[in-house]
Design brief:
293 residues; mainly beta; Jelly Rolls; seven-stranded antiparallel sheet; globular; binds fe (ii) ion
Length: 293
């Protein structure tokens, strides 16, 4: 099952460098969520600044939503797994994302938006990821893109592995609707059935993580002692390497794989603003208070 590795060959398979369980928190007007990236436990995984998971059938956990709030200096990516959320911003964009849909918003120089549940009962589940922008793009014009579930291609690998390609290109050439972004992101939603196996190259330059949505997976290391089980609700940061091999535990497991090129730039962040320097942060607060967004 494993490839023989010559003593001086660098590791190829990305194993699990670290597992993160996240911190229960609330944000917006009291929306309950688990923060996986952007905490004391895991400050960031360059270029990813924040990852929130929300998953509740209790309207009291989500009904307050995220009323109008600003962002500057990065992108927000919302992947809805179940439920409906309405986005509205001050650049004139408005839309509803629902189960399987993705919203990719480039806040760049500044946007004010609200993200409110479009339901009063039932399950609401999804992920929000913040992707940093390089310094030369932090003050670019904002952009907003929304993709319904039908716009997201899927790839089958045998009978045991289905991959939805949200961002980037998968190894059988499916191209996700999100492309040409600064950090060349990969964002895949992978379903593994019994005996399903996911093997995928990941550019050596990229930082990568998985987040398990359901069931348990085994991230296969270069050596068997590096094999790591990752369960539902856990995030696993992957080590350096050329590819990842993941097996699902029966009967079924589901995870997202996210990867991107690190920017290796200084980060000055506070609340909804992420810049390079403290002075730029101060300017962001000033511009917002003066109504310049
Ligand atoms: Fe937001």
């Amino acid at each position: 099952m494993k490839q023989a590795v010559h003593a001086d060959t660098p590791s190829r398979d990305r194993s699990v460098r670290r597992r993160v369980h996240g911190t229960p928190t609330s944000d917006g007007a009291g929306m309950r969520l688990t923060r996986l990236i952007g905490t004391a436990e895991l400050d960031m995984l360059d270029p990813f600044l924040l990852l929130d998971a929300f998953d509740s059938a209790e309207p009291g956990d989500y009904i307050a939503g995220f009323p109008a709030h600003p962002h500057r200096g990065f992108e927000t990516v919302t992947y809805m797994l179940a439920g409906r959320m309405r986005h509205k911003d001050n650049a004139g964009h408005e839309g509803v994302i629902e189960g399987g849909g993705v919203q990719w918003m480039t806040a760049a120089k500044g946007i004010i938006h609200s993200e409110m549940p479009e339901q009063e009962a039932g399950l609401m589940s999804g992920l929000q990821l913040w992707v940093n922008l390089p310094s030369h793009m932090k003050m670019a014009e904002p952009e907003y893109h929304e993709y319904r579930a039908q716009a997201i291609p899927s790839e089958q690998r045998g009978s045991g592995c289905d991959i939805k390609v949200i961002a980037g290109k998968a190894s059988q050439d499916s191209i996700g609707p999100v492309n040409g972004r600064a950090v060349a992101p990969l964002y895949f939603d992978v379903l593994l059935r019994a005996n399903g196996r996911f093997i995928e190259p990941i550019p050596v330059s990229h930082n990568a993580f998985i987040y398990v949505l359901a069931g348990k997976v085994i991230v296969v290391g270069e050596y068997s002692e590096q094999d790591t089980v990752v369960g539902q609700g856990e995030l696993a940061i992957l080590s350096d390497g050329h590819r990842v091999q993941i097996l699902g535990e029966a009967p079924e497991a589901r995870f997202v794989l996210v990867a991107g090129t690190p920017l290796n730039e200084p980060v000055a962040r506070r609340g909804p603003f992420v810049m390079n320097k403290e002075a730029e942060l101060k300017q962001a607060f000033k511009d917002y208070s003066e109504g310049k967004f």
